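Quick one: Virulence factor MVIN-like protein from mine drainage metagenome, C-alpha coordinates please.
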Amino acid sequence: MTAPRSSLLRGVAAFSSMTLLSRLLGLLRETVIAAVFGANAATDAFWVAFRIPNFMRRLFAEGAFSLAFVPVFAEVRARGDEAALKAFVARTAGTLGGVLLVVTALGIWGARALVHVFAPGLAEDPARLTLTADLLRITFPFLMLVSLTALAAGVLNAYSKFALAAFTPVILNLCMIAAALWLAPHLRIPISALAWAILLAGVLQLAIQLPALRKRGGAVVAARGARRRPGRAQDHAPDAAD
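--- reply ---
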Protein backbone atom coordinates (compact mmCIF):
# COMPACT_ATOMS: atom_id res chain seq x y z
CA MET A 1 0.00 0.00 0.00
CA THR A 2 1.41 3.40 -0.99
CA ALA A 3 2.09 6.04 1.65
CA PRO A 4 -0.54 8.56 0.38
CA ARG A 5 -3.22 5.87 0.28
CA SER A 6 -2.27 4.64 3.76
CA SER A 7 -2.42 8.20 5.07
CA LEU A 8 -5.84 8.70 3.48
CA LEU A 9 -7.19 5.50 5.03
CA ARG A 10 -5.90 6.52 8.44
CA GLY A 11 -7.55 9.90 8.03
CA VAL A 12 -10.87 8.35 7.04
CA ALA A 13 -10.69 5.93 9.98
CA ALA A 14 -9.94 8.75 12.42
CA PHE A 15 -12.74 10.90 11.00
CA SER A 16 -15.23 8.03 11.18
CA SER A 17 -14.24 7.18 14.75
CA MET A 18 -14.58 10.78 15.92
CA THR A 19 -17.92 11.13 14.14
CA LEU A 20 -19.25 7.99 15.82
CA LEU A 21 -18.01 9.17 19.21
CA SER A 22 -19.63 12.56 18.65
CA ARG A 23 -22.98 10.97 17.77
CA LEU A 24 -22.90 8.80 20.88
CA LEU A 25 -22.00 11.76 23.08
CA GLY A 26 -24.75 13.75 21.37
CA LEU A 27 -27.30 11.18 22.50
CA LEU A 28 -25.84 11.27 26.02
CA ARG A 29 -25.97 15.07 25.97
CA GLU A 30 -29.66 15.09 25.09
CA THR A 31 -30.37 12.57 27.84
CA VAL A 32 -28.44 14.55 30.45
CA ILE A 33 -30.07 17.86 29.50
CA ALA A 34 -33.52 16.30 29.63
CA ALA A 35 -32.79 14.75 33.03
CA VAL A 36 -31.25 17.87 34.57
CA PHE A 37 -33.40 20.64 33.11
CA GLY A 38 -36.49 18.91 31.76
CA ALA A 39 -38.80 20.37 29.13
CA ASN A 40 -39.69 23.88 30.21
CA ALA A 41 -39.54 27.53 29.21
CA ALA A 42 -35.92 27.94 30.32
CA THR A 43 -34.76 24.99 28.23
CA ASP A 44 -36.66 26.31 25.22
CA ALA A 45 -35.00 29.70 25.73
CA PHE A 46 -31.56 28.09 25.64
CA TRP A 47 -32.24 26.17 22.43
CA VAL A 48 -33.38 29.37 20.73
CA ALA A 49 -30.26 31.17 21.96
CA PHE A 50 -28.11 28.36 20.60
CA ARG A 51 -29.98 28.01 17.32
CA ILE A 52 -29.38 31.62 16.25
CA PRO A 53 -25.54 31.59 16.11
CA ASN A 54 -25.67 27.99 14.89
CA PHE A 55 -27.87 29.07 11.99
CA MET A 56 -25.57 31.95 11.09
CA ARG A 57 -22.58 29.61 11.24
CA ARG A 58 -23.80 28.01 8.03
CA LEU A 59 -23.12 31.26 6.21
CA PHE A 60 -19.70 32.04 7.66
CA ALA A 61 -18.28 28.60 8.44
CA GLU A 62 -20.01 26.19 6.09
CA GLY A 63 -21.55 28.29 3.35
CA ALA A 64 -20.21 30.85 0.91
CA PHE A 65 -16.97 31.38 2.81
CA SER A 66 -16.05 27.70 2.76
CA LEU A 67 -16.89 27.43 -0.94
CA ALA A 68 -14.65 30.41 -1.70
CA PHE A 69 -11.75 29.63 0.62
CA VAL A 70 -11.01 25.96 -0.07
CA PRO A 71 -10.49 26.21 -3.88
CA VAL A 72 -8.31 29.33 -3.56
CA PHE A 73 -6.28 27.73 -0.78
CA ALA A 74 -5.75 24.62 -2.92
CA GLU A 75 -4.72 26.78 -5.88
CA VAL A 76 -2.18 28.78 -3.88
CA ARG A 77 -0.83 25.62 -2.27
CA ALA A 78 -0.41 23.98 -5.68
CA ARG A 79 1.99 26.76 -6.69
CA GLY A 80 4.41 25.54 -4.02
CA ASP A 81 4.99 29.04 -2.64
CA GLU A 82 4.86 28.62 1.14
CA ALA A 83 5.28 32.35 1.78
CA ALA A 84 2.25 33.15 -0.39
CA LEU A 85 0.26 30.36 1.27
CA LYS A 86 1.03 31.59 4.77
CA ALA A 87 0.23 35.18 3.84
CA PHE A 88 -3.04 34.14 2.20
CA VAL A 89 -4.18 32.20 5.28
CA ALA A 90 -3.16 35.08 7.56
CA ARG A 91 -5.04 37.67 5.50
CA THR A 92 -8.10 35.44 5.24
CA ALA A 93 -8.11 34.79 8.98
CA GLY A 94 -7.65 38.49 9.70
CA THR A 95 -10.46 39.54 7.36
CA LEU A 96 -12.84 36.84 8.58
CA GLY A 97 -12.01 37.58 12.20
CA GLY A 98 -12.58 41.30 11.72
CA VAL A 99 -15.95 40.81 10.02
CA LEU A 100 -17.05 38.31 12.65
CA LEU A 101 -15.97 40.61 15.46
CA VAL A 102 -18.28 43.30 14.12
CA VAL A 103 -21.11 40.81 13.56
CA THR A 104 -20.66 39.44 17.08
CA ALA A 105 -20.73 42.90 18.63
CA LEU A 106 -23.91 43.74 16.71
CA GLY A 107 -25.44 40.40 17.66
CA ILE A 108 -24.78 40.96 21.36
CA TRP A 109 -26.06 44.53 21.17
CA GLY A 110 -29.17 43.55 19.22
CA ALA A 111 -29.83 40.22 20.95
CA ARG A 112 -33.38 41.13 21.83
CA ALA A 113 -34.22 42.07 18.24
CA LEU A 114 -32.68 38.83 16.95
CA VAL A 115 -34.86 36.83 19.30
CA HIS A 116 -37.89 38.67 17.94
CA VAL A 117 -36.87 37.66 14.40
CA PHE A 118 -36.05 34.01 15.07
CA ALA A 119 -38.70 33.33 17.73
CA PRO A 120 -41.46 35.93 17.37
CA GLY A 121 -43.75 33.97 19.68
CA LEU A 122 -41.55 34.85 22.65
CA ALA A 123 -42.65 38.48 22.41
CA GLU A 124 -45.83 37.45 24.22
CA ASP A 125 -43.80 36.39 27.27
CA PRO A 126 -41.46 39.20 28.40
CA ALA A 127 -39.70 37.01 30.97
CA ARG A 128 -38.85 34.31 28.42
CA LEU A 129 -37.83 36.95 25.90
CA THR A 130 -35.44 38.54 28.40
CA LEU A 131 -33.96 35.17 29.39
CA THR A 132 -33.45 34.16 25.76
CA ALA A 133 -31.77 37.48 24.94
CA ASP A 134 -29.48 37.15 27.98
CA LEU A 135 -28.49 33.63 26.94
CA LEU A 136 -27.94 34.76 23.35
CA ARG A 137 -25.47 37.39 24.52
CA ILE A 138 -23.40 34.54 25.97
CA THR A 139 -23.73 32.13 23.05
CA PHE A 140 -23.38 34.58 20.16
CA PRO A 141 -19.55 34.77 20.25
CA PHE A 142 -19.64 31.06 19.41
CA LEU A 143 -20.31 32.17 15.83
CA MET A 144 -16.92 33.88 15.58
CA LEU A 145 -15.06 31.03 17.29
CA VAL A 146 -16.64 28.22 15.29
CA SER A 147 -16.09 30.08 12.02
CA LEU A 148 -12.39 30.53 12.74
CA THR A 149 -12.31 26.87 13.76
CA ALA A 150 -13.77 25.97 10.38
CA LEU A 151 -11.04 28.01 8.69
CA ALA A 152 -8.38 26.16 10.68
CA ALA A 153 -10.02 22.83 9.89
CA GLY A 154 -10.02 23.65 6.19
CA VAL A 155 -6.28 24.26 6.29
CA LEU A 156 -5.58 21.08 8.27
CA ASN A 157 -7.84 18.97 6.05
CA ALA A 158 -5.83 20.13 3.05
CA TYR A 159 -2.84 18.49 4.73
CA SER A 160 -4.87 15.29 5.33
CA LYS A 161 -5.24 16.03 9.05
CA PHE A 162 -8.88 15.08 9.56
CA ALA A 163 -9.00 13.89 13.17
CA LEU A 164 -8.83 17.32 14.84
CA ALA A 165 -11.67 18.72 12.75
CA ALA A 166 -13.79 15.66 13.49
CA PHE A 167 -13.01 15.97 17.20
CA THR A 168 -14.50 19.45 17.58
CA PRO A 169 -18.13 18.27 17.99
CA VAL A 170 -16.91 15.91 20.71
CA ILE A 171 -15.62 18.92 22.65
CA LEU A 172 -18.98 20.67 22.37
CA ASN A 173 -20.88 17.66 23.67
CA LEU A 174 -18.45 17.09 26.54
CA CYS A 175 -18.65 20.74 27.61
CA MET A 176 -22.45 20.71 27.60
CA ILE A 177 -22.62 17.45 29.56
CA ALA A 178 -20.12 18.67 32.15
CA ALA A 179 -21.89 22.03 32.51
CA ALA A 180 -25.28 20.40 33.00
CA LEU A 181 -23.99 18.00 35.65
CA TRP A 182 -21.52 20.13 37.59
CA LEU A 183 -21.90 23.83 36.79
CA ALA A 184 -25.67 24.28 36.62
CA PRO A 185 -26.32 23.44 40.31
CA HIS A 186 -24.07 26.31 41.38
CA LEU A 187 -25.61 29.05 39.22
CA ARG A 188 -28.50 31.34 40.07
CA ILE A 189 -29.93 30.62 36.61
CA PRO A 190 -29.01 26.95 36.04
CA ILE A 191 -29.78 26.93 32.31
CA SER A 192 -27.10 29.58 31.74
CA ALA A 193 -24.54 26.83 32.41
CA LEU A 194 -25.28 25.46 28.95
CA ALA A 195 -24.74 28.87 27.36
CA TRP A 196 -21.35 29.20 29.05
CA ALA A 197 -20.54 25.65 27.93
CA ILE A 198 -21.16 26.67 24.31
CA LEU A 199 -18.78 29.61 24.66
CA LEU A 200 -16.09 27.49 26.35
CA ALA A 201 -16.44 24.80 23.69
CA GLY A 202 -15.89 27.39 20.97
CA VAL A 203 -12.66 28.54 22.62
CA LEU A 204 -11.40 24.97 23.08
CA GLN A 205 -12.33 23.91 19.54
CA LEU A 206 -10.19 26.68 18.12
CA ALA A 207 -7.38 26.31 20.66
CA ILE A 208 -6.72 22.61 20.02
CA GLN A 209 -6.09 23.31 16.34
CA LEU A 210 -3.61 26.14 16.81
CA PRO A 211 -0.58 23.91 17.60
CA ALA A 212 -1.18 21.89 14.43
CA LEU A 213 -1.51 25.11 12.42
CA ARG A 214 1.65 26.49 13.94
CA LYS A 215 3.48 23.28 13.09
CA ARG A 216 2.52 23.76 9.46
CA GLY A 217 3.31 27.45 9.36
CA GLY A 218 -0.34 28.37 9.59
CA ALA A 219 -2.23 31.49 10.47
CA VAL A 220 -0.61 32.25 13.81
CA VAL A 221 2.95 32.17 12.49
CA ALA A 222 1.92 33.93 9.30
CA ALA A 223 0.22 36.74 11.18
CA ARG A 224 3.41 37.38 13.14
CA GLY A 225 5.46 37.34 9.96
CA ALA A 226 3.06 39.71 8.24
CA ARG A 227 3.44 42.22 11.07
CA ARG A 228 7.23 42.02 10.87
CA ARG A 229 7.40 42.22 7.05
CA PRO A 230 4.16 43.88 5.90
CA GLY A 231 5.47 44.76 2.47
CA ARG A 232 6.78 41.31 1.73
CA ALA A 233 3.63 39.58 2.95
CA GLN A 234 1.46 41.82 0.82
CA ASP A 235 3.55 41.13 -2.27
CA HIS A 236 2.98 37.38 -1.98
CA ALA A 237 -0.64 37.27 -0.82
CA PRO A 238 -3.44 36.94 -3.38
CA ASP A 239 -6.86 38.35 -2.62
CA ALA A 240 -9.38 35.90 -1.18
CA ALA A 241 -11.80 36.94 -3.88
CA ASP A 242 -9.44 36.08 -6.76
